[in-house]
Amino acid sequence: MAAKPVIVLVRPQLGENIGKAARAMLNFGLAEMRLVAPRDGWPNPSAGPAAAGADLVLEQAEVFESLADAVHDCANVYATTVRKRGVTKPVLTPEEAAREIHAQPGRSAFVFGPERSGLETDDVALSRAIVTVPINPEFGSLNLAQAVILCAYEWSKQADLVQPTTEDLLPPAPQDELEGMIGQFEALLEPRGYFRPPSRAAATRRTLRTMLTKPGWNHLEVRTMRGVLSALKRRPEEPEKG
């Protein structure tokens, strides 16, 4: 697999934007940030809070005096800009650039300019290609972190990142556990007259069974529900047995 691309921020102005860019990077598996002549120096105390936990990216960020120095080891450099700025270069979307990065050897870099002015012509001239996002022609105003996240996301789509899950799914409870839960429901409801009149008892029990088997309870859920039923059966002053 091709090496992960480097994110290069050229003359970034605000620490908050550097932090937000780091957050965008790490969300999609990128951790190597390079800074070219940051306006307020480095490290910047405003970057940390804005990174929202992406401290690894900030701690490892390298600072360079020029863009040429920052991309010295990168064979494939992509300048992100909404205009060609008088330089004739191939123009790609983030998706096309990401596809190239995965297909070709050597290190690659996405280069982003200052928040207000973007990359200068000399900066763009160092690149292999220009990356431009198809955007509303009447309002082209992406901020730095948004531009970074678009490129990082397109790269990640082809990087086989593992999709996190919120929990490990448990297998469905076996039938005997469901029968035990249903029997406990019936034992609690019977003395309270729930299954009356007798002519409707069978249909009521069947409806109850259908309802309790429909959710697909797992073992833990069945145990939890039976614990709830046991608690409801006890008198308030009666301690739990066992």
TrEMBL record:
One of its GO terms (biological process) is methylation. Keywords: Methyltransferase, S-adenosyl-L-methionine, Transferase. One of its GO terms (molecular function) is methyltransferase activity. PANTHER family: TRNA/RRNA METHYLTRANSFERASE, TRNA_RRNA METHYLTRANSFERASE SPOU TYPE DOMAIN-CONTAINING PROTEIN. It comes from the Bacteria. It holds the Pfam family SpoU_methylase. Belongs to the class IV-like SAM-binding methyltransferase superfamily. RNA methyltransferase TrmH family. SUPFAM superfamilies: alpha/beta knot. This is RNA methyltransferase. It comes from Novosphingobium bradum. Residues 6-153 form the tRNA/rRNA methyltransferase SpoU type domain.
